[in-house]
Design brief:
The chain has helices spanning 113-120, 168-173; strands at 4-11, 23-29, 32-37, 42-48, 57-66, 84-90, 93-98, 102-104, 123-125, 132-140, 143-146, 149-150, 155-156, 158-160, 162-163, 166-167, 193-200, 203-210, 216-222, 224-226, 233-236, 247-252, 257-264, 267-273, 283-287, 297-299, 305-309, 318-327, 333-340, 347-348, 352-359. The chain is mainly beta. Strands 1, 2, 3, 4, 5, 28, 29, 30 and 31 form a nine-stranded mixed beta sheet that branches. Strands 6, 7, 10, 11, 14, 20 and 21 form a seven-stranded mixed beta sheet that branches. It has a five-stranded mixed beta sheet with strand order 17-18-19-22-26, with no helix packed on it. The longest helix is centred in the first third of the chain and has 8 residues, at 113-120. It is globular and about 55 Å long.
């Protein structure tokens, strides 16, 4: 099993310290680290301080970016979470995706059985979860800022056409014989649930936590483009068989679903964990060579490398976000992993939290 290289300490502003309790994504762009809490409608930017080998890496100078200032959220309410589950960066755009999942209400110990049974029967959508968008990243001096419009080159923020009940991707999946029935099932019940985003050229790859189909995890490939005559609305190119707007890729991840994705050169790294509400196991797989240009794929277990077995807690420390953080002295990939339901031992003082750096084998 790989051992942790060292810790990364994320320092948040005191007023927003609760962000540390549940980080769902992480993305390094040069000397900046971008993260999000899946119960908010904002992105968080931290500055990575230089550190000697073996020292803790400190990330501070926290700035929050309310996404309502850059996008037209389906529900214009900062309390209506986006459930951000994927971040990626390419061509000076930051891409983000919500889970697109339904949720089932939780049973609560202070309520009688009759009420809890009713709660467990209640399934609700969150309109902001149906968000897939890109926002320009503008470099200003030694910093990175988000922008709705970059006047210098005409880049604009844009999002996939949709509303509080779904979007173009969901309408396409609703016609899919393999996947459509899972749209009605909550994410943590092996229902449709996006957790992971990678960009390769003009293509986006969406990792699904669920459904897992007889042990096979699913990645969806899409290619968004601006709608004709629009500067802020994305539509999906028809790239799949039979005129579909997506391609499907199936991976044998030993029964696990996707929790996050990141690209390392020509390799794809897959953070995999249980699709149901379980603690573990959690594994990072490596697929060498990348995706075929215009084909769907079925990737068997022997075609994947097990790069890391990630430690997990009992009822806490669920690995949710992963990004390529560095390249080691011998060329090895070093990834940062951040956690949802973070364990108390990871908290530093009143506003900081500890993530883990791992060198992959």
């Amino acid at each position: 099993m790989n051992t942790r290289s060292n810790a990364v300490i994320l320092n948040f502003d005191q007023a927003l310290a609760s962000i540390r309790d549940g980080l769902s994504v992480a993305l390094r762009i040069d000397h900046m680290l971008w993260v999000a809490n899946d119960e908010t409608t904002s992105l968080e930017r931290l500055s990575i301080k230089p550190a000697a080998p073996g020292e803790e890496v400190i990330c501070d100078a926290h700035k929050t970016f309310p996404l309502m200032e850059y996008l037209n959220l389906p529900v214009a309410d900062p309390d209506e979470e986006i459930d951000i589950e994927g971040l990626a960066y390419d061509q000076h755009y930051l891409w983000l995706v919500g889970s697109h999942s339904l949720k089932r209400k939780k049973a609560e110990p202070d309520k009688p059985a009759e009420k809890n049974i009713k709660r467990l029967s209640t399934i609700v959508p969150d309109g902001n979860r149906f968000l897939l968008a890109r926002i320009p990243v503008e470099r200003q001096h030694d910093s990175q800022e988000l922008a709705r419009v970059v006047a210098a080159d005409g880049r604009t923020a844009a999002q996939l056409r949709g509303n509080t009940l779904g979007n173009d991707l969901m309408r396409e999946i609703a016609k899919d014989d393999q996947l459509r029935e899972f749209l009605r099932i909550p994410g943590k019940d092996n229902g449709f649930d996006i957790e992971g985003l990678a960009v390769i050229g003009s293509r986006l790859f969406l990792g699904l936590r669920g459904p897992v189909l007889r042990g096979w995890a699913v990645l969806l490939e899409i290619e968004p483009e601006l709608d004709s005559g629009s500067t802020d609305t994305l539509v999906l190119k028809k790239i799949g068989p039979d005129g579909r707007s997506y391609r499907k890729h199936f991976f044998s991840l030993h029964g696990l679903g996707v929790r996050d994705l990141c690209v390392s050169g020509k390799n794809l790294l897959i953070l995999a964990g249980p699709t149901m509400d379980l603690d573990g196991p959690v594994t990072v797989f490596r697929w060498r060579g990348g995706f075929p240009a215009e084909a769907e794929s079925v990737v068997f277990a022997e075609q994947l490398e097990t790069a890391l077995q990630v430690p997990f807690g009992q009822g806490d420390d669920h690995a949710e976000g992963m990004c390529l953080f560095d390249v080691g002295t011998e060329g090895e990939e070093v990834v940062l992993i951040v956690y949802d339901a973070v364990a108390e031992r990871r908290k530093r003082g009143e506003r900081s939290v500890e993530g883990d750096l791992f060198s992959l084998k």
